Amino acid sequence: MEEIYAKFVSQKISKTRWRPLPPGSLQTAETFATGSWDNEENYVSLWSIGDFGNLDSDGGFEGDHQLLCDIRHHGDIMDLQTLSVNQQWTTAHYHTGPGSPSYSSAPCTGIVCNNPEIVTVGEDGRINLFRADHKEAVRTIDNADSSTLHAVTFLRTPEILTVNSIGQLKIWDFRQQGNEPSQILSLTGDRVPLHCVDRHPNQQHVVATGGQDGMLSIWDVRQGTMPVSLLKAHEAEMWEVHFHPSNPDHLFTCSEDGSLWHWDASTDVPEKSLLFHQGGRTSTFLSHSISNQANVHQSVISSWLSTDPAKDRIEITSLLPSRTLSVNSLDVLGPCLVCGTDAEAIYVTRHLFS
Amino acid sequence: MEELDGEPTVTLIPGVNSKKHQMCFDWGPGEMLVCETSFNKKDVTSRFHLKFLHLFECFLPLWHHKMFRAHLVCHFIFCRLVRVSKNYRSVIRACMEEMHQVAIAAKDPASGRQYSSQVRGVTTVVLAPLFPSLLPAGPLLLHLLDWVRLHVCEVDSLSADVLGSENPSKHESFWNLPGNTQTLTELELKWQHWHEECERYLQDCTFASNPHLESLCKIMLGDEAALLEQKELLSNWYHFLVTRLLYSNPTVKPIDLQYYAQSSLDLFLGGESSPEPLDNILMAAFEFDIHQVIKECSIALSNWWFVAHLTDLLDHCKLLQSHNLYFGSNMREFLLLEYASGLFAHPSLWQLGVDYFDYCPELGRVSLELHIERIPLNTEQKALKVLRICEQRQMTEQVRSICKILAMKAVRNNRLGSALSWSIRAKDAAFATLVSDRFLRDYCERGCFSDLDLIDNLGPAMMLSDRLTFLGKYREFHRVYGEKRFADAASLLLSLMTSQIAPRSFWMTLLTDALPLLEQKQVIFSAEQTYELMQCLEDLTSGRPVHRGPDTQQCQDDDIETTKVEMLRLALARNLARAIVREGSLEGS
């Protein structure tokens, strides 16, 4: 892990996302977007990382990402995705209830895009499916959940997966007409709220979620209704979890406790892939010794789906130089990582795997 | 209290007639609340009656978003007690330059002036090095030069000036600092020698032919008149002071500084203008009167930012305690509390305020408890962050209260799952009971459960409250019944009643649920169980008259109830008969 550069931007960052590169492109990521929150005026900003010039004489306080443009936004920015669109859907999420006024808006908590479809979820427990060229929502599932839906991701193309604040994963199939999920999986033990979800880029049945207690859970949606592995990770809410899109042996998580972790499940043996599922084997919980940070608590270790216990190790590295306020968001693309914090700083590194 | 240095501006509030009605007001951290009352001056006995509220936001340039960095850096240093280092200073400097640009760009001159005074206020942040015990080794004057150069922005623009750029190199080579082997007396001797040489040149009229060189020589001798001639190049009186000292008394001791400062101020202002509040601060600093500095800063600056951090630094250097003010040991805490309260009034800086309260041993926790409950929570994510802060500090009361508010909002918005999730977080059994009652009521009204995904998956949370346990078990009864496992369903149903976790109001429903089981072809309830059911029914009916009120609707309900009770009695009796027969016969168990 080489240098990570910080820049203070005078706004608390709630989301950072790399601008997607065209598939098959050999370039490295250059542009990212950030969204701010908790200010009277929030901004969605686009930043570009240029060449690495000389380090500032202060060293460590000035990054080299430059603001390209920004736009004002009313309300906190909860999620960002990149798509070409020229529409606004202003009343996508709202509350209706005996006690709420006739129209009272609800925060939209998550959004995911798969050109040209856009799926949003919110605190009103509603799922909306939009298309970039349609004015109205193509499909709305009212009261999809009695609690707040925190995040959404695509599973296979017509299927999405949502996580909520009572520790459940729900799979929804848009091909079906009803308003019921096609599958529900839930945590064992305490139904801790789940805040983030990400699907393995190559194996569409492997899903990772992060919870309010900082626990990282790995699920196999084809099998059973319980998580495959539970790893005690952060000390506070895990806000985002990401599989690396091209190196899925690597996972990244960030949390309210101010840390950002890089989970490396690749082994020394290059040809062995840890991410294939051995048919028929049920997962077992094993503990291993892990080389690395002293402040990492591990109660249960496994690879993403457990394979050979003797050979599995996960290396965990903390990427930020010092504890800060909450790290709200991160994104990885190629060798580049960007994250944003409540300490009004954006951290960028271009050498993740050096 | 000090006298005001100017007339306060009068602001007319539209819609308020101050002649007719008295106004009352109160200060907030960044606002002022003004209300018009219907209190009549003549009639002393009439009560206060608030008609209109006006909120005035005070102009607080230090809350400008470009200054956030200053707050953050100070917060960072505050938490870690890093010594005042070049890093820190340069960040402050960058902030100041940005603020300066904002000041220049400010639309109206009044706010522009306010900005620049705040900018200069920030420059005084390096007063700390002036205090002797914080000074690293070296002559005082060098630090003063450093200070002027780094923190008086305008000096940078005087690049080609004699007073500016030429001095440092000449000066440093003169002092020969790296080795620092010379004592102050040796340096003084050297300087004296050089000074006398300059004087000789002047008296010999060596530069008589060139008036510029002559005035240059006079300047180098520290001649005040010559220096004052260049007044427009000197941006302010402390620049003048340092320059003067450089040429007339470079080995000045800290203790003598105040006399030079006072006379420099008087000479520079020349009786034309009176000292500004910031000048008073600097004067107090040159006199090393810490309490006077703090007092002047508190009056002059519109924000506790500077004073709070300065006092904290001084306290850590053990400088405050040497002074005997009766609230001296609490002054640091008082100022930090004021600053932190101000941070909480800001929509996004409240997170920094938390750490400041943590470092106030006496009143910090109590203040934090009061403030944290009042942060407006627009989204769940913000609420979660606030709750995490409370939980980390074991503020269970605040967690409970915030969760209750959120749960109430959720119930009103018909988000029963969210409401339950908040009550679980706060371990609030009472609210869990409320949510469960709501579910049960919905069931009674609609005949089916809503949100089955929630009730079926309660997990260990079911134990939070009896009502919640009942809800979970009752749903389980329906599930088991649906799977046609009648014996299990029957014993579950019975246990719900006998274990007292079912609310009385629900017993009738439970007994009615037992009816189909009683009417089945095979005997499901044993005799023992039937006796218990009958007992429950009698308990219920004997206690019933208490709940009834006089009402025609109630009379109809009474009829329905009576019919139900009779049907149940009949069914129970029949089942008892069959059970006894079965148990008594050879096939019975």
From TrEMBL, chain A:
WD repeats lie at residues 187-229, 231-273. It is found in: Nucleus. The gene is NUP43. Pfam families: WD40. It comes from Saimiri boliviensis boliviensis (Bolivian squirrel monkey). Gene3D superfamilies: YVTN repeat-like/Quinoprotein amine dehydrogenase. One of its GO terms (cellular component) is nuclear pore outer ring. The keyword Nucleus applies. Keywords: Nucleus, Repeat, WD repeat. It comes from the Eukaryota. This is Nucleoporin 43.
UniProtKB/TrEMBL annotation, chain B:
One of its GO terms (biological process) is mRNA export from nucleus. Its main location: nucleus. Pfam families: Nucleopor_Nup85 (PF07575). Keywords: Membrane, mRNA transport, Nuclear pore complex, Nucleus, Protein transport, Translocation, Transport. It is found in: Nucleus, Nuclear pore complex. GO terms for molecular function: structural constituent of nuclear pore. One of its GO terms (cellular component) is nuclear pore outer ring. Coiled coil: none annotated. Functions as a component of the nuclear pore complex (NPC). Component of the nuclear pore complex (NPC). Belongs to the nucleoporin Nup85 family. This is Nuclear pore complex protein Nup85.
